[in-house]
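Here comes an entry:

___
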Amino acid sequence: MKHILFATTAIAAIGLGGIAHAADPITLKLGGYSRYYVGYADNDESVGDYQEFDVKGANEVYFLGSTTLDNGLKVGVDIQMEAGGNADTRKSNIDEAYITLDSSFGRVIIGAENNAAYLMHVTAPDAAGTLESGEINLMGGTWVVRPSGVNSLQKESGIDVESDAEKITYISPSFGGFTAGISYVPSLGDHDQAPKLEDDLTDLVAAGVAYKNSFGGVGVKASAGYLTVLEENETASGTGDYDEVSAGIQLSYAGFTVGGSYANINHDTTTDKGLDGRVFTAGLQYAVGAGAVSFAYMDSKAEGAVGGGDDRGKIYQASGKYNLGPGIAAVTTVGHVDFEDEGADANDGWTAFGGLRLSF
C-alpha cells in the first residue's frame, strides 16, 4: 500500500505540474489572528490553589503566498508562526508550514498540515469557537484545571493523533457536494532525523469524505474520517491495532443549526498513546444578523488510563458572539467542566470568560 501511495503521489505531481512557468513570482502577504479572553474559574480544593481571575490568549501570524503557472497550476505556500499567548507565553515558533498545488484535479498539500480527515471534519456548532479550539480548550484544562491523573482525554473529536507531522495530502474537487481526501504520514518522529522504526509510529494513512449541500432551505454538512497504521509497521510501536474513526453532521434552517460529532479511538499499542477511548459532541446554535448564541456538550473518555481505570471529562457550555466589524468579534462563554477517574483524582468547576477574536 505504501508503494501505491508513493506512485499515486508521483503521478499526481507530474499531472499537475508538467513543464510550466509562473507569470509572476510568489509574493508573501500577512494574515493571522489574535484572541484574548478575561475570565473566572473555580476549582476544587483537592487540586490545589489556583488564580480565579486570569487573562489568556493565543496568536498566530500567517505568511501566505501563491502564483499561477501558465498551465493553470496554482502554487502556494503557508507558513504559520505562533506569536505568544496562553501556554506558549514568551516563545514564538513555527506551527504549520506547507506548500499547496491546486488545479482542476484537486489540491495537493505537502508539509506540516493536519490530515485530510481532520480538515474535512464537521463538529457541533459553537458560536464562540471555544468548544474544540486548540488554544482555549476547556477539555484541556485551560480554565478549570484537569488533574494530573486525568491526563489521557482527547480534547477534540477530529482525528489528530499525528497533529502537524509532515505529510502528503490529496483533496479532490467537489462532485455533487461530495469531497474526498487522503493523507500519508511517513513518521511521527523528529523530521530532522531519519525515523527509527522501533521508536516512532510510521506509515500512517488518514482518509476523509465530506458532504455539503442544501435542500429547500435546509443546509446539510456531514463528514466521516478514518486513520490507521499500515499493517507491516504496527509491531514497530507495540502490538495490536492502531486506528481511529470519526463522523459529524450539521443541519441548518432559518438561522438555527443543530449538530454533533463522534470519534472512536482504538490504540491497542504499548506506546504512550496506547489507549482506547471515545469522544462526542452535540450542540444547538441560533444566528441572526451579526450575532449568534449556542449551547453545546462534550463528553470524552479514555479507557485503561492511569492506575488501570477510566478517565472522563464532560463539558456543558453556553456561548455567544457578536461581529463588531470585518474580522472583529466579541465572544463570551459560560461553562461547567467535570473531570474524573476511577480513583480519587477529580475536579469540577464553573468558568466564565469573554474577549475579542481578531482575524486579519
Observations:
- The first strand starts at residue 29 and ends at 41.
- DSSP finds two helices and 16 strands in the chain.
- The chain has a mean pLDDT of 84.
